[in-house]
Design a protein that fits this description.
Blueprint lengths: L7 E2 L1 H9 L3 E13 L2 E11 L7 E3 L10 E4 H11 L13 E4 L11
Parallel strand pairs: 1-4
Antiparallel strand pairs: 2-3, 2-6, 3-4, 3-5
């Protein structure tokens, strides 16, 4: 019997929460620095609940309960795109957080 941990979610589970109105929050754990043409840092992801009471941290597996972290901006942007985000706002300073809300419509860029 597997006990469900209430405050974590895997990548597959995150997709389900996004469909329920959760947002993806990108949190900068280690400030970003540029090396050559690549930005490095440490970012983690949280599923932000609409009511803010049931947020869930993204983990690599429910068995290990290790936060999934991203070490490059390109890896993080690829993850966000795979989750359905049409834009990416990445915090570069430690402790900063940026929300990403999925939308079902597109905006006219000429406005």
């Amino acid at each position: 019997m597997m006990v469900e941990v209430p405050n974590v979610v895997t990548e597959d589970g995150l997709r389900g929460f996004l469909a329920q109105g959760y947002c993806i929050e990108v949190i900068c754990e280690k400030g970003a620095e540029r090396r050559n043409n690549t930005w490095y840092g440490v970012w983690i992801v949280r599923a932000g609940a609409p009511d803010r009471r049931n947020d869930k941290m993204l983990v690599t597996s429910r068995n290990l309960l290790k936060f999934r972290d991203f070490r490059t901006i390109s890896g993080l942007v690829s993850f966000l795109a795979d989750m359905g985000c049409k834009t990416a706002s990445i915090p570069l300073e430690q402790g900063r957080c940026e929300p990403h809300h999925l939308t079902t419509h597109t905006h006219d860029a000429r406005r």
